[in-house]
């Protein structure tokens, strides 16, 4: 009986609050909110449809429905066609390089040509008496549009010499002399292919000849850091891929300046490694110390991030004890051998770089065991300091192992001496006379003056470089393998994009290309990052892996197929962030890919399912189309190529519309995309009536009397735009919209405008409303409304165009508050009103951003930050979905994750002994934690149980890695039109109503203010750092090695080893014995 009473008591307690919920619920009648939403929706749609002309444009396209042909896009056929176009473009660049290389050979024989030496720093400089400086002189520079309006000389090249080199050194002067003939070659190349930009020759002696000529300016200290020989294009062209182990002596004798020079030497060696190379650094005294303990027993790819990390670790080295070089050499040889057997490295050249102040013996026993007789591992000793007591031993090591010995006495000696090893590694390639063409991945070279000036003006400029080695062809020096230098030319990524017809890829479609290493050459997501509304450069634009942007491909199926140069297709659902990462579009993409022949690149095309898989062709007379194309309100996409105006000088200053007219007038030298211009003429005719329609609205003074609607605009699938102002330009609230200041809202080379893309995902006939997330709060005072125009009634119909308007936020808000004061009561007395203090009214969009609120400071704020309890409930009820978009590129690139474990290891090691006694207790505590999301994302349990007392070992040790961040984004569920909810707070129940605004992406939210739910806290869009338990082996991404490899050659003169001239007789005899053993092994 007592049990029954208890049950009745708790039942009454349970019923009581729900009775209050009903009473509260009656305070926000759903019917009233629905009335408000309906009234506002009808009013705002009427305004948007009227001023945008959406119904008129839809009608016009319907009138032409019978004259258009809808085609489904064949993805494989499309990607092969685009790859063919890129192949032709790349081939033209490669041909220019080959011509330059041939000219270098020819000029090495022909002497006595005219000679002038224009030093890039000294040109147009005067001394105190007003005279031109030596190696300077007057050098005419004029701004040139093709070179981004930089001041250049199209007739002559200039020569840059690094600051640490004497610009009148005989070797440099001789090299500059014979390379002078390249001026004419550069000019002729540019005439044949006017799309060429910078052409250059990087000499093995260190000077850099660049065309067109441009002024170079040292930094504030008078220093030019640029040395062409440590640019990636030079390194890739000059040498074959290599695996390198760097041994650094940290014994007690290396203290002070010697250790400083050693660090700089290692850093300079790292500068000479490229993306096809692998390396590790081992410091030694009585023990071995991997500079990065996490990478014990393996090599890592020499990408920019890994090299920078190892540089930082060099500062942690300190000298003490005795140097055990035999132990270090043994470790290096075993490491190279074991890593080579895995097949993960370069599988080509191998080298040991030894940075030390001496060696007490030659350690021939180690070399005999690991390297003789084949001598497949070259040894390059760098003697640090002025003393030469042990120099002979180091010289012997170099000569006996096909390496090169140098002595580095001061910091100023480092750069030149390090470069010597590149000449040795290039010998086999030179002797084979192999002109391997190399292409780099996309990168930003901000060390050259043109890159610095362009970055200041328009942000980082991405480019790839095609390069080829130049070597001596004299038979008498053949076995020395003399490398003269490398020729190259830059290809901006923007030019690659011109080969991609964006109109054939659809609204969300895009093309992308990757290298043999899986690194991105071009991808629309490889863009400048934003921080507090301003652009900032990523730490490195190079070495960005495809998996960092197509991150939903968890198994790397797409990436690996492209790396292996396959042709095929792949599908997956993706989440694409837009509007500076604040919104997300959920799409289903089909990917098609193939290789670009003659290059290390593969091309991919992504097409979104639905409307993105269809294309239509219209058919109208050229005369009719040209007439409407010339209307003053017509604009064509600035970055799209309707006609190529860059191939001939007489076309350079033509606008695209003028070029189209000239093309139809029979200009034979003008190449145009016939399909694109046919379709843009069709769109010009169909959209022409809107010009007169908008003009009539603007002239009618009774319409838009309060000037709430400021701009009407449209865009079509062919990049055609029309814009009409209903107010004077100086009266525009947001004057930056559609001007190109924000590239996300205009047609660009790789994407449709944001308003176009978002409208395409709305139900046909509806409008999508939003506040622009621009820099500066003043731009939040407008609302944009846009709608898509479908060609057919079917759901998968191609989208022909999109229209929209810009209106004042104040005008938009006034319409909302007016609608929210309506009621259906016969006596006119409303039961509730948004004016009441008991309720709060909001208007939010489908991504949860507030457009209208009583508190104006909340405009543009995420709804969860203002009403955390309600937003949490909406998510839990399914009214809004929370998506997480992972960002690798904003944190650490996945390929460079090895070393992150050390961050945790270093922090924990000092405290692990203290914590071990509490481990069991905390493990029990963790098992009771119920925040599943936290455990998944931080993986605290696995983190605690990782064995932090054991140093990294060989093989695939598991490590903890904070590798990326998740950025939450919210999207409303389309099928849920209205929701009534109740939230149990600490001492009350909070009720709310959410109602969709008809024909829009907007929702009206009405919330009971009488219940305080502030204990819930806000729901934010702050990123979440994710911790994974990862295995070291999983970091070895698939890569395709270069097609050629030249590790050694039997004709190579290995006695050219840097110190052979100074060898003592006894050491000379020993080296000869080694060579005999090598040639006649037992």
TrEMBL record:
A single GO cellular-component term on record: voltage-gated calcium channel complex
Keyword Transmembrane applies: yes
Family affiliation: Belongs to the calcium channel subunit alpha-2/delta family.
Single GO molecular function: metal ion binding
Entry's transmembrane regions: 890-914, 921-944
Classification via InterPro entries: Ca_channel_alpha-2/delta (IPR051173), VDCC_a2/dsu (IPR013680), VWA_N (IPR013608), VWF_A (IPR002035), vWFA_dom_sf (IPR036465)
Name of protein: Calcium voltage-gated channel auxiliary subunit alpha2delta 3
Subcellular location: Membrane
Record organism: Cyprinus carpio
Domain VWFA: 243-425
Signal sequence coordinates: 1-23
Domain of life, source organism: Eukaryota
Keywords: Calcium, Calcium channel, Calcium transport, Disulfide bond, Glycoprotein, Ion channel, Ion transport, Membrane, Metal-binding, Signal, Transmembrane, Transmembrane helix, Transport, Voltage-gated channel
Bilayer topology annotation: Single-pass type I membrane protein
Pfam families xref list: VGCC_alpha2, VWA, VWA_N
